[in-house]
Amino acid sequence: MSLSNDEFLQELGQLFKSPAGGTVFLTQKRYTFGADASSSTQSGYPCIIRATNGKKVKLSTLVQPSDSVSFQVKYAALLRTNMTTLRPKDRPARKKRVLLEGKGDKPQFIKVNREHKGQSAAAKALSKGKLPKVRGSARGAGHKMRQRTMKKRLESIEKLKKMRLLQLQRERAKRGIFPVSA
Question: Given a cut of 90, is residue 61 above it in pLDDT?
Answer without folding.
Answer: yes
